[in-house]
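Reading group handout, session on sequence-to-structure problems. Before we discuss, look at one worked example. The prompt was deliberately terse, the way you'd type it at a terminal:

> structure PilW family protein

The input record follows.
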Amino acid sequence: MSLIELMVAMVIGLLISGAVLQVFLSNRNTFLMQNASGHIQENGRFALQYLAAEIRPAGVGMGVRLPEESICVVASNGATSEWSAMNRPVWAQRVTAGGALGAVGTDQLSLFVNDNCGAFLTAGEILKPASNANIKVTRYCPSMAQNRAVMVMDLEKAVIIRVSNKPNSTGNGAVTLTHAAGNNDKAAACGGFKFSDIAFTDPARVVGFSSKIFYVADTGRKDASGQPTRALFARDVSTIPAQTMEVVAGVESMRTRYGVASANSVGVQSYLTPAEVEASKRWGDVRTVKIDLLLVSDIRAPGAEAQDVVFDGQAVAADGRLRQIFSTVVALRNRID
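And the output record:
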């Protein structure tokens, strides 16, 4: 073999190797892009389905809703400060400062649902704030588990206590709920009454409830590209102490809008931001909730450097990670006004 033939063979080999390498790199980039996209799609669909399932029943079993100053929180070690909006089936706010529950610029969504179980205080029962008190209720509800908060209410006032025993769940006869003195603030004053002077008019309901706050915050972890990871969180403040659960990672931001209807109307007239609903005091007119989620991949994806994403009217800076917006509109099952 001559030197010329060897050089020609080497050139041909290099061309073939280059072509194979190009195909390999192209396939690798395609794999990375599809992997990132698939991961985002899975997380986005799950997050929307989870939120929709939680939003739809908001306000179930609310019955007569009392002014917030008529609700007396006496359960100690509970998330008292986070119950400020618990009498509103749907409530939200935009996080504007650090230290709040959620990342700055994201929305925080609170949902309240009564168990609608139909339990009442038995005749003659009262709450005894200064002692380890047992109260008897007419039936057991799953929401009456140990360390859950329950609300005892009549048409004028309500008291939130912490169940400190394990109630009889067989459903036979009256059910006893213990609210230990150590778990009560006997000096609590709400509106025009004190817990120490409490007396309920018959019949008084005993209501278990679910009160959850959904928000987006940093997880404290970093992804494969070295960037901080955010996630969607759910905080259950009807459990004492409150329990926080990470729902799905990769949720970079959440924005909400609320479809409101005019009085005595079902149809949505306009969509308002949380601040606009709060300013106009129209939480009772909310009929639908629009959720927008911005999800981001946990790896850098080829081509994402030039990705142009606009979320809620604002451009999102590209950093090499793939982003996608997921949206849904959820109709509430009940009129909440």
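Points for discussion. First: The mean pLDDT is 82. Second: Residues 222 and 228 are 4 Å apart (CA to CA).
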